[in-house]
Write a structure and sequence with these properties.
- By secondary structure, the protein is α/β, with parallel strands linked by helices.
- It has two domains: 193 residues, Formyl transferase, N-terminal domain (Rossmann fold, 3-Layer(aba) Sandwich), CATH 3.40.50.170; 96 residues, Methionyl-tRNA Fmet Formyltransferase, Chain A, domain 2 (Roll), CATH 3.10.25.10.
- The chain is built from six helices and 13 strands.
- The strands form two sheets. A seven-stranded mixed sheet has the order 3-2-1-4-5-6-7, with helices on both faces. Strands 8, 9, 10, 11, 12 and 13 form a six-stranded antiparallel sheet that branches.
- Helix 1 packs parallel to helix 5 and helix 4 packs antiparallel against helix 6.
- The longest helix is centred in the middle third of the chain and has 24 residues.
- The chain is elongated.
- The N and C termini lie far apart (53 Å).
Length: 309
């Protein structure tokens, strides 16, 4: 079996290649790397890795290269993981076991390019990823594999992305085992009545609205913004502040308006909607990362109010 991997991200294709290299006595693995501006991608390292492992490697020059790559190499199955271009599936002909997309979000509830962010921002009790058959409609094909994990308080965007990068391997191996056992791959149609598309987050999506957001929603947003956005954004006195870590205390906020600083000395606490208190541990201001216990040294005072988004 020839297994094709298509991806823009070394964070995603390296875990897959590492496991697939030894799968079933070194099944044939071929890699197609899409064009990317991600500074963490290193073509030289990828080339050395693939050469050492005997993995056929193709770097994209034009988005149409994908279709000629498939025709030349004739993979038996293709997995897309973090590839940014729109795929014309009808141009990927004669892929014996199908073309599948690894989507880091539950479907159909979290379609779109940034499902990890939106699952965390929405504060789901469980977050997940799926592998689905690709169609010409974005994120809409039958689901072949799904996995969920509890949304623990310590899981932020970076950790969720890393966990899913490892869990995708579990899904791919289970699907390959099914094929090698001579069984048909599962495929559950998505319920279109539950389909929601979320675009990439923009400025308003990462800003705190103190008057409308409950304390738990603010904490969820902070998790969803770390570390790619270096925290959730708010503003005070003409300055932008990013909150990187915070939690809700059990204290009563003494009926202060949401966004009001209650303490700015040894503790940095802010009143939240619902008569709760947000205890801030770490923030970023003027490109400096600051432990919140030093908030008073940066000019924050009791009674000041953060602006709403």
């Amino acid at each position: 079996m020839i297994i094709g991997i298509v991806s823009n991200s070394a964070k995603l294709y390296i875990p897959l290649l590492s496991y697939l290299y030894n799968y079933k006595n070194k099944a044939g693995v071929i890699l197609y790397v899409g064009r990317s501006t991600d500074p963490e991608n290193n073509p030289g390292e990828t080339t050395r890795f693939c050469n050492a492992a005997g993995i056929a490697l193709t770097f994209e020059n034009s988005k149409d290269d994908l279709y000629s790559w498939q025709q030349i190499n004739q993979p038996d199955i293709i997995f897309f993981s973090g590839y940014g271009n729109i795929i014309k599936t009808d141009l990927l002909n004669d892929v014996r076991h199908g073309i599948f997309n690894i989507h880091f979000g539950l479907l159909p509830q979290f379609r779109g390019p940034s499902p990890v962010f939106w699952q965390l921002k929405k504060g789901l009790k469980e977050i997940g990823l799926v592998i689905h058959k690709m169609t010409n409609e974005l994120d809409s094909g039958p689901v072949a594999w799904q996995y969920k994990i509890p949304n623990q308080p310590y899981i932020n965007y970076d950790m969720a992305y890393q966990l899913f990068g490892e869990l995708q391997v579990k899904g791919v191996i289970e699907m390959l085992d099914t094929i090698n056992a001579g069984k048909k791959l599962p495929g559950s149609a998505q319920d279109e009545s539950n389909a929601v598309y979320y675009d990439k987050p923009i400025l308003k999506d990462v800003m705190i609205n103190w008057s409308e957001m409950e304390g738990e929603e603010i904490v969820d947003l902070i998790k969803a913004c770390n570390s790619w956005n270096m925290g959730a954004i708010t503003a005070i006195g003409g300055m932008e502040l990013k909150i990187l870590d915070a939690f809700i205390t059990t204290e009563n906020n003494l009926d202060k308006a949401p966004g009001t600083i209650i303490r700015a000395d040894n503790d940095f606490t802010v009143a939240c909607k619902g008569n709760k208190i947000l205890f801030i541990n770490f923030f970023k201001i003027n490109n400096s990362l600051v432990p919140a216990r030093f908030a008073a040294n940066y000019g924050f005072r009791t009674g000041q109010c953060f602006l709403n988004a």
